[in-house]
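If you are new to this repository, start here. Below is one unmodified record pulled from the training split, so you can see the exact layout before writing a loader.
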Amino acid sequence: MKRQRASGLGLLLDPLRAEAALWRRARFEDDTSSREALFNRYLVLARSVAARHFKWGHQSTDRGDLEQFAYEGLLQSLDCYDPLNGVPFGVFARPRIAGIVSDGMARMSDVDAQLSRRRRMRQERVRSLAAISERSDDPLASLADLAIDLALGLMLEGTGMMATDGGADVRPTAYEGLAWRQAQAAMAAGLVQLPDKEGIVIRQHYQTGLTFARIADLLRLSNGRVSQLHRSAIERLRRRLRHY
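And here is the target side for that same chain:
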């Protein structure tokens, strides 16, 4: 019995056709959103490779570092893969991701090994946000602004709007007040309204846990430009919270 051809809505719902459309837009139309969608689609693959290396004897190393190497391998695989060669992307990418993880572990210095992923990411945020708060005429106001900006980052990371490493629900309880819930609602609305690239930076940094370097690879931008986009997005969210 012949399989009927999909048409109309069926074409959109067919996973293979949907992925093929993403590859076409990402590779041949340089569409950033499609590239991010492909990256998100294969995050589980990258994390599974990192988890296997962690299980095989790298438990003295922060698992997040292994995941960063795996994300690097995934991004390189996205760049090298030819969707017309007939090989499934997962088959193509897995050995390359594993190789990047192994190479990354080999080149890590003792200093890098002692500096946790979370600490490095927070240092990135501080450097990015410092430019917002540079007020040479009022150092105290500058420090206060920086504290507010960092608090926004913690809100993104820890309110349930963005996933945490442990997957636990850490949203505030009903007893923590109407003002907090209103701030959450304003933040959620602000996230949806961010410009495309700013939204990608915020989602991938706070939700997925990508460093600025990996986000730069994803967007094909410089680290400095990603830092600027992060700073701009946080400033937009801060202005929104002022008026909620």
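Two things worth knowing about this chain: Residues 69 and 101 are 5 Å apart (CA to CA). The chain has a mean pLDDT of 77.
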